[in-house]
Amino acid sequence: MSLLDPVKHVLSTILATTHDGLTAVGAPADSALAWVVGIATLVVLVRLALLPFVVHGVRQAHAAARARPHLRQVADRYRGRTDADSIRRQMEERRTISAEHGVGRLGCLPVLVQLPVWLALYHLVADVASGTAVGAMGPELVSSFGAASVLGVSLAGRGYLGVGPAHLAVVAGLALTAALLSYVTQRYVVAPNTVVDGLPEAMVTAQRMMPALSAAGLLVAGGVVPVALLVYWVCSSTWTLGQSFVIARWWPTPGTAAALRGRG
């Protein structure tokens, strides 16, 4: 039994319940619309549930940005001093500054809490698309999921090369959409809201490359994953873009280009 199984079972219940609700109001059980709306609903509900962790992460980013100039002053003051007493006093001053600005020792905890949910959601869609029953998504619903198609392309289908041009159009269209959403989010929303002052040049270069690498990765993966996962990526990337824009527009990290733009 996987550690993700309990989370996958909860998510499968949401997906199955959404599908059953849509069919109850007249949507065909095997229609792509019912399942695509189900995947979108699942993404929205999961992301809403994770919002408290997002808020905590934003607050920690702001606290770290406010503390950074003071921590840099401490580092400059103790530069080149490697004796035990200097190291101890430097650590004490850093802890004091972090506490004054509200920087938590477990700043990465929100991401660690969210990671199992993201992984479970990914694996749930992948398993169902491959024909594997998961929790409330029993064999009948899994069969219905596999029978659903977008322009004749099954949600369980995969690869750029399929039967006819419609297959390529659907798969490439979804992959390109997910890649474009990811690039725009990273390049024009997240990057301007990220503090790079004082970071090593290698890290700054890596951050600059991240939007293109992320988009390229999605385009490559689009050729091997099920269509249903591409639908999930598009839905998730759309939410991420909107969420990142709201944060950068109304709660930008101090000292970033987004914060300066907001004041202007």
From TrEMBL:
Keywords: Membrane, Transmembrane, Transmembrane helix. Residues 35-248 form the Membrane insertase YidC/Oxa/ALB C-terminal domain. It holds the Pfam family 60KD_IMP. It is found in: Membrane. InterPro entries: YidC/ALB3/OXA1/COX18 (IPR001708), YidC/Oxa/ALB_C (IPR028055). The chain crosses the membrane at residues 32-58, 103-121, 141-161, 168-189, 209-235. It comes from the Bacteria. The keyword Endoplasmic reticulum does not apply. It is a multi-pass membrane protein. Required for the insertion and/or proper folding and/or complex formation of integral membrane proteins into the membrane. Involved in integration of membrane proteins that insert both dependently and independently of the Sec translocase complex, as well as at least some lipoproteins. Aids folding of multispanning membrane proteins. Interacts with the Sec translocase complex via SecD. Specifically interacts with transmembrane segments of nascent integral membrane proteins during membrane integration. PANTHER family: CYTOCHROME C OXIDASE ASSEMBLY PROTEIN COX18, MITOCHONDRIAL (PTHR12428:SF65), OXA1 (PTHR12428). Belongs to the OXA1/ALB3/YidC family. Type 1 subfamily. This is Membrane protein insertase YidC.
